[in-house]
Amino acid sequence: MKIDIVSVFPDYFDSLRLSLLGKAQDSGIVDLQTHDLRQWTHDVHRSVDDTPVGGGAGMVMKPEVWAECLDELIGGKPGDLSSSGELSGSSGELSGPVLIFPNPAALLFNQKQANDLSRKERIIFGCGRYEGYDARIPTYYRERGLDVREYSIGDYVLNGGEAAVSVMVEAITRLIPGFMGNPDSIVEESYSGAEGLLEYQQYTKPAQWRGLEVPSVLLSGDHAKVNRFRRDDSLTKTARIRPDIIERLECSALDKADCKILGGLGWDLSGLHPRKSQEL
């Protein structure tokens, strides 16, 4: 996968050279490049922002700077034929990479989207700053056929898009085949699988530590009992922390033991999608 990140602070992403992501780059699984947006400015101050139209506090990132940057990274100006083949047709329609802008007012990024994006060949991330980027930037490229997405990583506001991009890059790249040394470690993680349950609690040695013991069933060597214990723990944890996930479960995905656990927690399992009992 090829990843381009555009930011006014490209050095922010030096940390992406560490650990597994750094190894993935060294092995060629991921090709990650950062770009300084100011490289596409033409004034002495290297300005990337201006005052908001209609008034208001702060500054907004200018569309013309972003357009020069993105046109070059994508492969040329809209409507031109390029050697890369990523820009084509007299209508100016684009094809090729997925363009992603972090935006606190956008759709919430989740594991499903990370999994989808892990199958893409190329992603370009644009990091907003100040009061954000001119709304015409994503509109312009979306109208020309590019896959443009805007994501929020949570219900809070950051100083810029760099932290959000780092989160998304890590969530996406670790799902690429060959990235993880042991691919099985991904299978039962939180939000993975069709149900999207939270992962069960994990333990390691020693079996007793500061008066706290590892659940005895995990030491039994009975794999069926261990799997059932972990499944029960996952259901219980999800019901407590993320009841919205339980509400979306389909009854066909639950066995008798699952129903017993959820019923004991006060869930009404009648109907296709379980709903929490009114008395709770």
Which structural class do the helices and strands define? alpha/beta
- Please name the CATH topology of the largest domain: Alpha/beta knot
| CATH domain class of the largest domain | Alpha Beta
The CATH architecture of the largest domain comes to 3-Layer(aba) Sandwich
Strand order of the largest sheet: 2-1-6-5-7
Rg result:
23 Å
Tally of structural domains: 2
User: Approximately how much helix is present in the residues?
Assistant: 25-40%
Beta strand count: 11
Give me the CATH superfamily of the largest domain.
SPOUT methyltransferase, trefoil knot domain
Beta fraction = 15-25%
Kindly state the mean pLDDT as a whole number? 89
Number of helices: 9
Low-confidence stretches: 79-85, 274-280
Largest sheet, strands/sense/barrel? 5 strands, parallel
Gross morphology: elongated
Pfam family, one: tRNA_m1G_MT
Subcellular location: Cytoplasm
GO biological process, one term: tRNA N1-guanine methylation
Catalytic activity: guanosine(37) in tRNA + S-adenosyl-L-methionine = N(1)-methylguanosine(37) in tRNA + S-adenosyl-L-homocysteine + H(+)
Task: Please characterize this protein's 3D structure.
It is elongated, with a radius of gyration of 23 Å. It has 280 residues and is of the alpha/beta class. Helix 3 (111-117) crosses helix 5 (162-173). Strand 8 and strand 9 (212-213) form a beta hairpin. Helix content is 30%, strand content 16%. It folds into two domains: 2-80 and 92-181, Alpha/beta knot; 208-276, tRNA(m1g37)methyltransferase, domain 2 (Trp Operon Repressor, Chain A, Orthogonal Bundle), CATH 1.10.1270. It contains nine helices and eleven strands.
